[in-house]
């Protein structure tokens, strides 16, 4: 009689099955929704393998890639900045500790600027920020008649500009939208 030959076929890869994760298992371990992982994949931040039935499969190394993406987002990096950082790695490799250290050194200036902006925001939230609302008593002193409007849109004092030491030139009056509630003087009621 002839010998019986038993063949095992692995259509995935040479990765051991204990190291292969479904999208649900990856999502659960990473603390993300499966839709977030699919989104990251659509954005080119990661890739999956497909099983014979077409289901997404990931390796445990993808957990580190997701952790890298989330850490970079926590730092305030855009998806484009994260994509560029990941593209700098050879052959789409998952970032190592050395990769993270190298990439994060390049982000230090950006982070320092964001920290400075957040510190200004924290320190100025209780006072006039030059947004034009004129609702605080301090606005009459620091932004009389919305003088900050001539400097441009937005909360000018949060953007790093200092209030004028002397009254600024009177800005053109701002016409409120139809139906808005204004005081008899044409301004919103002041708050403390």
Describe the structure.
With 192 residues, the chain is mainly alpha-helical. The protein has 2 domains: 17-107, Orthogonal Bundle (Multidrug-efflux Transporter Regulator, Chain: A, Domain 2), CATH 1.10.1660; 125-175 and 183-192, no CATH class. The chain is 39% helix and 5% strand. The protein is built from 6 helices and 3 strands; from the N terminus they run βααββαααα. Strands 1-3-2 form a 3-stranded antiparallel beta sheet. Strand 2 (49-50) and strand 3 (56-59) form a beta hairpin. The chain is elongated and about 95 Å long.
Question: What is the topology?
Answer:
Elements lengths: L19 E3 H8 L3 H9 L6 E2 L5 E4 L1 H14 L4 H9 L9 H28 L12 H6 L50
Antiparallel strand pairs: 1-3, 2-3
Form type: elongated
For the record, give the distance between the C-alpha atoms at the N and C termini, rounded to a whole number: 98 Å
Strand order of the largest sheet: 1-3-2
Number of domains: 2
User: Can you tell me the CATH topology of the largest domain?
Assistant: Multidrug-efflux Transporter Regulator, Chain: A, Domain 2
Query: How large is the radius of gyration?
Result: 28 Å
């Amino acid at each position: 009689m002839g010998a019986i030959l038993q063949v095992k076929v692995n259509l995935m890869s040479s990765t051991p099955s204990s190291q292969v994760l479904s999208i649900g298992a990856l999502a659960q371990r990473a603390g993300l929704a499966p839709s977030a992982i699919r989104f990251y994949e659509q954005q080119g931040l990661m890739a999956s393998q497909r099983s014979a039935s077409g289901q997404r499969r990931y390796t445990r190394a993808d957990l580190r890639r997701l952790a890298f993406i989330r850490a970079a987002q926590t730092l305030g990096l855009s998806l484009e900045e994260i994509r560029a950082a990941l593209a700098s790695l050879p052959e789409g490799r998952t970032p190592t500790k050395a990769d993270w250290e190298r990439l994060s050194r390049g982000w230090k200036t950006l982070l320092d600027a964001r920290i400075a902006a957040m510190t200004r925001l924290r320190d100025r939230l209780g006072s006039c920020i030059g947004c034009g609302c004129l609702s605080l008593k301090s606005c009459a002193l620091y932004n009389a008649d919305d003088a900050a409007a001539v400097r441009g849109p937005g909360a000018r004092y949060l953007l790093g500009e200092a209030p004028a030491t002397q009254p600024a030139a009177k800005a053109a009056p701002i016409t409120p939208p139809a139906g808005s509630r204004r005081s008899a003087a044409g301004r919103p009621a002041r708050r403390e």
